[in-house]
Write a structure and sequence with these properties.
Blueprint: H1 16-19, H2 66-75, H3 84-92, H4 95-105, H5 112-123, H6 132-137, H7 146-157, E1 174-176, H8 193-196, E2 204-206, H9 228-240, H10 246-257
Antiparallel strand pairs: 1-2
């Protein structure tokens, strides 16, 4: 309920699901998300699906885990634009929430630690097993066709798997965007440098997960690329110094589409009603 509740935001209109929509691959399919007062975000919203497989959260890794990440957007002036004290006050004024906090935590005290713990616990359930690639790995050799298998082999032999590896096919390390050639972008995002302050970390970003990648367009941290075909060509050139031909691009894209798994089966929760003494949300 907290993940879907817009009352965590200052305006009362933005929820976690606004930018990490579970019906859209766990993202919003926008180049950069729209936050409070129609502000355009500086970076593309990563998918929340399988996010527990990441070594850290956010593109720059500034949150060590999902619990730490969950509190960030609530207080970010460009996102939900509230603050932790106000969000807690709103939730604590709703009797049904207090009863549910008591059931979950043993007392009806509402605080930001419990709010973020609950959101993170929900997000940890958002995994997508059962992709055709999973079935192929498990022994069903009919799950992939020849083009898809060729794409997988090329994905490994060309070096893509050097960064995109592990259970999430990514999310295990940081890498410079533009290893061999510079990437031209209007984004002001500096990547890990914003966390460490080190010039050597400029334009190092967390390598994104590739599970469900066909659903999470547009691509890259700035959302500048609309199609997987274009993304594969650019990544080949910038990261590997390889000019993939059309057949190679098509094969890799065919493989990437086999990474789409079973989407979370959920029902939109019924929000507990506010009471008269609930602080009214401020308008945009």
């Amino acid at each position: 309920k907290l993940f879907f509740d817009p009352r965590l935001s200052k305006s009362g209109f933005i929820s976690c699901n606004s930018c990490h929509n579970l019906s859209m691959g766990g993202t919003d399919n926008l180049p950069t998300s729209i936050g409070h007062a129609w502000q355009q975000g500086p970076i593309s919203a990563p998918t929340v699906l399988n996010s527990s497989m990441n070594l850290a959260q956010f593109w720059d890794g500034r949150a060590k885990d999902l619990k730490e990440q969950a509190g960030g957007p609530i207080a970010n002036p460009g996102e939900m634009a509230s603050n932790h004290d106000l969000a807690v006050k709103v939730l604590a004024s709703i009797p049904q929430y207090k009863a549910e906090f008591k059931k979950a935590f043993g007392s009806d005290q509402v605080n930001i630690d419990r709010v973020t713990t609950a959101i993170a616990a929900f997000e940890e359930t958002l995994v997508t097993p059962g992709s055709r690639f999973d079935k192929w790995l498990e022994g069903d050799k009919t799950a992939l066709n020849k083009q898809e298998v060729d794409g997988y082999e090329l994905f490994k032999s060309a070096g893509c798997a050097g960064c995109h590896n592990g259970p999430g096919v990514g999310g295990t390390l940081y890498q410079k965007f533009g290893v061999h050639h510079p990437y031209k972008t209007d984004s002001k995002a500096e990547g890990r440098k914003e966390v460490t302050g080190k010039d050597a970390d400029l334009h190092f970003f967390k390598v994104p997960l590739l599970r469900n990648i066909e659903l999470t367009y547009p691509y890259f941290h700035d959302g500048a690329v609309d199609t997987l075909e274009e993304a594969v060509k650019i990544m080949g050139k910038l990261q590997l110094d390889i000019d993939f031909n059309k057949k190679e691009v098509d094969s890799i894209v065919a493989f990437l589409k086999t990474l789409t798994g079973e989407q979370p089966d959920f029902k939109m929760p019924i929000m507990p009603p506010s009471t008269n003494d609930t602080p009214r949300p401020e308008p945009f």
